[in-house]
Sequence to fold (748 residues):
Amino acid sequence: MPQPVLTASLMKDVALCSSPLKTKGALTIVAEKDLQALPLDLLLVLDVSGSMSGDGISVVTDSMVHILNNLMRPEDRIAVITFNSSANVHTSWTDVAGTIAPLTAGGGTNFGSAINEVLSFLGGNDGDGSRAGVAFFLSDGQGQPAKDDNVRSITDFGFTMHTIGVTSGANPTHLEQMAELARGHYYHAPGFEDVKRAFQSIFNYGKTIVYAAPELDVTVPDGVTISDVVQTPQGLSLTKHLGPGTHSISLSHMIKDTRMEISFSVSVDNVSCEGQTMIATFTLGQTTTHLTVRGTNDQTELYNAPMNTDVTMIAHSAVAATALKQGNDAAVTRAITKMEKLGIANPNANTRATIISQATQATTQGERMETLGKMQSDTSGKTKLRED
Amino acid sequence: MQCTDPDCSRELAEADLAAGCCQECFEMLDPTVVLELRKSMGIETYSPPEIQIPEKQEAPISLPSFEQCPGCFVDLMTNDLSIWRKGLQCPYCQEPSPHQNDHSSLSSAETPSEQQSVPFILNSGSNSGTVFNLPVSQELGRNDFRQILVKPEYDQRRQFLSGEHFKIHFDAISQSVSIEDLGSLNGTFINGRKIVGPLPHPLTHSDVLNLHDLSFCLGSFSPPAIRVTHEPSGVVTEHPFSDIPLKLHFGRSNSEGGRESWFRMAQVEFSQSQDKLDQLETISRSHLYIELERQQNQFSLSVWNEVAKPPFEVQGMDEFTITTPEKVTQKFSSNESKSIIFTHGRNSFEVAYILDKSTT
Fold:
């Protein structure tokens, strides 16, 4: 049975021995080529507070009917959870033959109860990886926030959650953070008319999933610390810190014919002079890869050892995406400049720099983050924007 | 120099250069920083090892020598050219040749750079020992040999030649001869090895050219000084003055372990008769050596036998039998022709010194 290909590398594969080391590393995951896309479970988490009445409800209903009648494949399922001050399962799992009852709007907005309802609904769902679960959370308002841990545990059920912010009232940064915790993307909908497009986009994305929210196991030996683990090119912050021990990280869905890239910083207390020093072991399903560094005293060899331009590009792109999310324009520009310099050695860095600098041109933070979410890297590391 | 991260004030040092990364804040060093850092620390810039581009070997394209007729602008080549150079008129437009007033004869008018033909000694059949000048840069095949080998006994052997069998190249600069097989059916063999491909195979003096059972031996451009004839096969090899000092070997194997030219050709000649082949093999792999040196007007000829090999009888020097590996040396004047015959059983070699008439 074919397995995904895991490649872990450091900026340089040699390091000065008998001394500490700080460097950047990257893990890339490429799925088998001819993998079939998984059947899709689409969970709609819809804001039906008072502000959604009228246009909002009719656009959402139209979009749902469109998905049900035109886009869904026979193996796909859909379910709807509605929330205002409290949350309810509006429609349980139904396939293409089912119907969805009309929605009614009214009341306040409470994100926390919505997420709780999602978790209890998914609690009966077995996340065995045979189906891809995509939840999407639509809101036009600022509600009471959900607990981070609760949002994060959505991935435990093999689901990722995307968020759509109708920005006449919603706070994009807040919704973006929710999407990031649940390994999804943020979609930007300035008005209700944009909601339909976002629905379609998410559905099309869902149809290309080959691995549903895979778990990556990382084993870090004593004397090594891994930090700032960021999935690129979307700039999804996976975790801040991994000390010695074994850790499990939920990744976002793996899309057909793409490369998943994970950038991280490595601190080693002491690089051994003999042989390879173990830095980490990465395991995804049946596949395992070891990241090591060779210690040497030879100054010339160290200085002349080539830099792995792929690792450097991934690291720069993680910096750029993180800065873009934080709205730190100076840091984004700096990262773009560095990527452009790298472009001489690695043309992929150039295309990525161009796309990120295009993202910075967007007028609203919501648009920027939507562009980030649409960035994907093909199996050779070339970046492009996903088209829906 | 300082780390490029505005929030980090680390002074970059060797450790940072070695890791390619700031050892404080993980800031990656970009190529310009690396260069500056190397400069400030006095480490010479890294240049990747030089890679040598392999020379591409191609078949040399040698243009045939030609002259353009001023009357009809036809490029005169090969036979037409030699007629033209002899002073005869252009065969196409009867334009008179400017060469008719040339005083010199054809042979001396031709400088080596305009070499038209290469001498090959035929070593097959009753015409063995005849020297043929085969034209260069021309496709040679069955029809060309019909005009050379006219005796009926050669009809059978000619059948194995292709219509366009091979081509001889002459490089005027290096004065070297090479031969190219034109995809013949039965192949062109040099010293027993089939030559293939578009690259001409270089030929050196005394190399044996085999076209099926026709044997030729590359002769000398200048008049021969020494002519060696093997009886009873009639195989002839020639050596010009420029080859002296000369070492001849009357044995079956050469120093590289291959067959000596004379033996190779004699074998082909006797291929139909097991009895004659057996006779040939009475000569050992390494047997009789002859060395010829020249000191002004004198030649000194040294002869010696390989240890424990049957003796040769000698005629033409002081008659005696060579039985020992000790050298027997005789001197003779360069002003007289000389013929010495070395005999062993039914094999004999005649070594003839031919006077160079042009020098006398």
In short: Chain A has two domains: 1-36+216-388, 40-207. The interface with chain B takes residues 11-12, 15-16, 19-24, 228, 265, 299, 302-305, 307, 312, 315-316, 330, 338, 341-342, 344-345 of chain A (CB under 8 Å). The domain at 40-207 of chain A is CATH 3.40.50.410 (Rossmann fold). Chain A has a mean pLDDT of 86.
